[in-house]
Amino acid sequence: MENTGANGxxxxxxxxxxxxEGFRTSLASMPGILAWGLVSGMAMIKAGLTLWQALGMTxxxxxxxxxxxxxxxxxxxxxxxxxxxxxxVVNLRFVIFGxxxxxxxxxxxxxxxxxxxxxxxDIAAGLFPLRFPAETLYRPxxxxxxxxxxxxxxxxxxxxxxxxxIFLAGRIPESWNIGFAGTLALLAIMIPLIINAAALGxxxxxxxxxxxxANLPYRLGLLLAMVLGMAAAMLIDAWLEKKKT
Length: 245
Description:
This protein is mainly α. The protein folds into 2 domains: about 15-195, no CATH class; about 195-245, no CATH class. Helices cover about 70% and strands about 0% of the residues. The protein has helices at about 15-25, 30-45, 50-60, 65-75, 80-90, 90-100, 110-120, 120-130, 145-170, 180-190, 195-210, 220-245. Helix 2 packs parallel to helix 4, helix 4 (about 65-75) runs antiparallel to helix 5 (about 80-90) and helix 11 (about 195-210) runs antiparallel to helix 12 (about 220-245). The longest helix is centred in the middle third of the chain and has 26 residues, at about 145-170.
């Protein structure tokens, strides 16, 4: 028997409805993601990659911070192991994201979880817990659809921007400051995610550390800011819970 809505119209299957919800939720972040993808695409061409190398990198790597960290090392002919290690360190935050999101999808087969891991990103890690907090861990309905609604839209925006940057690298002047515009667009998305004192403390600490450690080699300042920010948020959250009891 087909599902019908209150007005008698056919209702969407739960996962399809959740997918549309996730897509709509992530729409506001797409301009910022597209702008950062554009910067990444331009950077790859200016670093000396060929057209096909740049296209291969954006579709296979799909990690802007790692790409932007690895490109200067590639230009300097650094050893492959150094480039690989740098990209791994910069992307360690995805391990943390995966550890937080993974239990929500433990009911799925491994190959499906592996596919979902490719779309793991900052936007998904920020938006998914708002819709499915920790207390919904054992209620899987709608999670896969919602996550992929975010993941697919994020991927699409990034790749459209990156491919455009690859083909337009020589035609877009640096004075346009596209990267700065992308940062502002993402800030408008991330600020509403600061929903409590623990999140605020983590943001403040990570921001301070990122500025102080900006000159560390291999963009290690980014990793340090992330680790200390999350540690601060966890400590504040534990202190607040202890204070309640």
